[in-house]
Amino acid sequence: MAAVLAAAAASFYVSQRFEMNSRSEDLISQNALWRQREAAFDRVFPQRNNLILVVIDGVTPERTQEAARALGKALAERRDMFPVVRDIQDDPFFAKNGLLYLPVKDVRETTQKIIAAQPLLAPLAADPSFRGIMAGFSTALTGIENGQGSLEQLAQPFSVFADVFEKVLAGRPAFLSWQNLITGQAPDLHQTRRLLEVQGVLDYNKLEPGGLASALIRKTATGLDLTPAQGVSVRLTGPVPLADEEFATLAERAALIATLMLSAILLTLWLAVRSVKIIAAILMTLFAGFALTTAAGLAAFGSFNLISIAFIPLFVGIGVDFQIQYAVRYRAERHAIGDLRQALTGSGARIGSSLTLAALATAACFFSFIPTDYSGLAELGFVAGIGMIIAFLSSGTVLPALMKILNPKEEMEEIGFARLASADRFLQRRRREILIAAGAIVVIGLSLLPLLRFDANPLHLRSARTQSMSTLLDLMKDPETSPNTVDILTPSLAAADGMASHLSKLPEVGATATLRSFIPDRQAEKLALISDTSTIVDTTLDPLDVKPQPDRIEILRSIDATEKQLRRVAGAGSTAGANAARRLAGSLERLERATPRTQSAAIEAVVPPLKIILERLRMVMTATTVNLDTLPVDLKRDWIAPDGRARVQISPKGSANDNASMERFAAAVQAIAPDATGASISIQEAGRTIIGAFTRAGVLSVLAMILLLVIALRRFRDVILTLIPLFVIGVLTFGTCAALGLQLNFANIIVLPLLFGIGVAFNIYFVMFWRSGGRDFLQSSLTRAVVYSAATTASGFGALWLSSHPGTASMGELLMISLAWTLATTLLFVPALLNTATPRA
């Protein structure tokens, strides 16, 4: 009754207080020096924290700009959800001075093309409408009729417009790029891609803190018709969507995995105890212990983090082991004695010492994680350690009480594996050969250990199928948009420039940037070219008289006149120009007879981008000298702190997704600037912190376990016999990982405490059985309990291998490898090892 009340109270407490802290930055102690530097940098530049990066790709530069403006404006109106919305590329400063950032050669070519396009631009600027476009064609055709050109010069624009109108007439989306027409060049990715930096409001009480903000961005984009069907793709990436979609990936196949896990656990429990009543008692005991452990974790920390929540598989995996050990022992006692009460008390007497030692040793292993800088693991160690004690106590109290109430039927058959008697005799006869073979396998495993790698790159744990990850990988192809940069905070801009100059000489560095990087070079030459061009095209781009917008009748008249002129000039010619002119005339004739809706679609395809390109041309003709004082305030705030400290940004050379390259890059920068921070350094430092935490915890757990075994077993030889199989399991597990190319990572390393705990428990069970005089290991009820305990863990949590999340799948893979070697070592190596030694009375 006491256990029922405690479990009920714990369940109520959990239902009222359960919280998840999904802040990944809280997983490592803020006391770590590199975390302090990272936090200090974030405080200086808070506008760069928790960003959602909106990547907008358009079919044309004009469509991209139009989409970015529309989405940025819509998001900026929701200050309650998006405190910061920035489009640096659309800043009036860069629209005005963009040409200054090109090489002199490119500026000269661009200005020459603008001058050459005057005959096309003049009528369009005076009448920026569909009527004006038709008038532009008429002007050009009149010139051809007067011998001032040829149709071949207009073949390309005629074909482009014909393509657009034919798509409209066919009911398909159509988009025109005036920039392409003027320059004669296809735009590059930098012209058809825009990046919006959005700082959304996050809710860290949810597994996807930025889920609401991201959903609102996508909904807004859809509401503005910013879809691939309308020539625009809007994708989200950045720290917030990456973390959110990682949880979404974890949720994929969750129902399938949970169903398989539960089914497998129930099946193996049935094979182990062959009693519905005993299974019910085990499950109820597990639930009670789980509720108490969860309540203890919440009482201690207030919430679970992304690592400490892993106590669930740890508790279930080892808790089931304790209960299976007791239940199988009970079945053996019940078969031998018959009386329920005596069987229950006899089971406790026979297995109590080994269960106690296994529970204390396992708890000590978990508690050893507490004094580390890996906060997530420290909390996991505390909760899991408490869970082991609760699981042990409930196995000796709640489970027997439930079994007494449920009163399972008597056991009519032997509980062990009597058919394995010959295998026991083989292990006894061939024990030396088995030990030699095991030693040889261990040597092979040791030789493979240098090949074992720890992958510290958290990006490799994420599914490339998610939008945020695929978009990030796309951005990483371009050094200008790769996130794997390093930042250094220097006392002043002069110091930043000096640091950038020094670092740029490193072979690992691809580029460096400071605020001064935004001051264009050779401005006098570029401004002279722009000024000369502006003088020539001034009245072209800014005519004194601009016609009012035409009505539908005027548009139809202009279409009809242009269509007839195209046919007249083309005549019966067979040149490319004549063919293109007749093709355009045909599309205009059909457009003239089309529905008003189709005609409006044609206007929308060509007029809005015309207005955008005219606006851009007017802006670039007003470029002025750029200096530190004229740079945009928001841009300066990104590079200069209020106290005058200046930021240096360093980009790596080579692949930004290659661990070795990033490690060399981070080390090279830190050798000169130890206070540097950024993604490349954080990844390396986090890896060192986690490896250090596991190393320290491993040493502490081994020392604690040795001390505990010495106190409990009181014989040094028995302690060594208990530890040797653990060493064998560890070497064979890691050696197999190295041979298969399975790298340790931030995810699968979490299952190591579970595997270590199970290995400790199994070895203690066998050593205690051996100390009590047992010799026939394989045919004993102990082996039945060990086999089905391992099978329960393997069949249950091995289902993680099916996860869509690469990190979780690697957890399942590592768990299966380790459990396979744990069983093989426990059932073959341990009996052979113990059979070579004679236990003292």
In short:
The protein is mainly alpha-helical and 841 residues long.
Verbal overview:
It is a single chain. The chain is mainly alpha-helical and 841 residues long. The strands form three sheets. It has a four-stranded antiparallel β-sheet. The longest helix is centred in the last third of the chain and has 35 residues, at 679-713. The two termini are 41 Å apart. The model has no long low-confidence stretch (mean pLDDT 83).
List keywords for this structure.
841 residues, elongated, 33 helices, four-stranded antiparallel beta sheet, mainly alpha
Q: Determine the strand fraction and express it as a percent band.
A: 5-15%
User: Structural class, from secondary structure content?
Assistant: mainly alpha
Give the rounded overall mean pLDDT: 83
Query: How would the global form be characterised?
Result: elongated
The amount of helix comes to 55-70%
Walk across the major sheet and give the strand order. 2-3-1-4
Radius of gyration: 36 Å
Number of strands: 10
Q: What is the count of helical runs? A: 33
Please describe the biggest sheet, giving its number of strands, its sense, and whether it closes into a barrel.
4 strands, antiparallel
What's the end-to-end separation, in Å?
41 Å
List low-confidence stretches. none
Write the layout of secondary structure elements.
Elements: H1 2-17, H2 33-44, E1 51-58, H3 61-76, E2 84-86, H4 92-97, H5 104-116, H6 118-126, H7 130-145, H8 155-169, H9 178-183, H10 189-192, E3 193-199, H11 211-223, E4 232-237, H12 239-251, H13 254-273, H14 276-301, H15 311-337, H16 340-367, H17 375-396, H18 398-406, H19 421-429, H20 431-448, E5 454-455, H21 467-475, E6 486-490, H22 493-503, E7 509-513, H23 523-541, H24 552-570, H25 576-593, H26 596-620, H27 633-639, E8 646-652, H28 659-672, E9 677-678, H29 679-713, H30 716-740, E10 744-745, H31 752-771, H32 781-797, H33 806-835
Parallel strand pairs: 5-10
Antiparallel strand pairs: 1-3, 1-4, 2-3, 6-8, 6-9, 7-8
Helix pairs in contact: 1-14, 3-26, 5-23, 6-7, 6-23, 7-24, 8-25, 8-26, 13-32, 14-15, 14-17, 14-18, 15-16, 15-17, 15-31, 15-32, 16-17, 16-29, 16-31, 20-30, 20-33, 24-25, 29-30, 30-31, 30-33, 31-33, 32-33
